[in-house]
Specification:
alpha/beta; 7-stranded mixed sheet; single chain; about 20% strand
């Protein structure tokens, strides 16, 4: 099923699970290291410029930012992880919030994990993948900034990442700049949000 992601709108920001909308319908979360291109990916996939704030300063997403496509379909931008300049206490707080969200949110249908194609599968990426695996949460990896590498190098990174995932999830090339992989990502999101992947 195809969805028109251009209808996506910002709904709310939450500092805790209690600030999220009712846990009904279906939603997909976006995770990634700080500055991996998560906000740019959200903007490219929805086709709504400026939907998610893009910053050159890592660690700007500190809340659970919720975007609504329909009343029953949402996208959730999780706080970026792995940024060293954030105080340890705040990092722990973010980690607890994200862990609770992933583990307790009944409407969560899957996790889109954004990784910079030049630096995939770093320690924090593997920790997030491990958590999703424990929770049996479907994961799809976007190797972002694919336009930064030549075709051969991008293909090698894709193959290496697929091998490194060891069956934890699926992976594709993605570039918010060139538009590569946007259609593929939209189709997968539509399947998760409508429940079509179960049929």
């Amino acid at each position: 099923m195809r969805l028109d992601f251009r209808h996506t709108r910002f709904l709310t920001s939450a500092a805790a699970l209690g600030g999220l909308p009712a846990d009904i319908g279906r939603e997909v979360a976006f995770a990634g290291r700080s500055n991996a291109g998560k906000s740019s990916a959200l903007n490219a996939i929805t086709g709504v410029g400026g939907l998610a704030r893009v910053s050159k300063t890592p660690g700007r997403t500190r809340l659970l930012n919720v975007f609504t496509l329909t009343e029953a379909m949402r996208l959730v931008d999780l706080p970026g992880y792995g940024y060293a300049k954030v105080p340890e206490a705040e990092r722990l707080k973010w980690g607890e919030m994200v862990g609770s969200y992933l583990g307790d949110r009944e409407s969560l249908a899957g996790l889109i994990q954004v990784m910079d194609i030049r630096h995939p599968l770093m320690d924090f990426d593997l920790q997030m993948l491990g958590l999703a695996g424990e929770l049996q949460l479907p994961v799809h990896v976007l190797l972002s900034k694919a336009d930064k590498l030549k075709r051969g190098a991008a293909a090698k990174s894709l193959a290496d990442t697929k091998k490194g995932l060891r069956g934890w999830g699926t992976v594709q090339l993605f570039s918010a700049h060139s538009g590569e992989g946007v259609d593929e990502a939209q189709k997968l999101l539509a399947d998760w949000l409508t429940g079509e992947e179960k049929k």
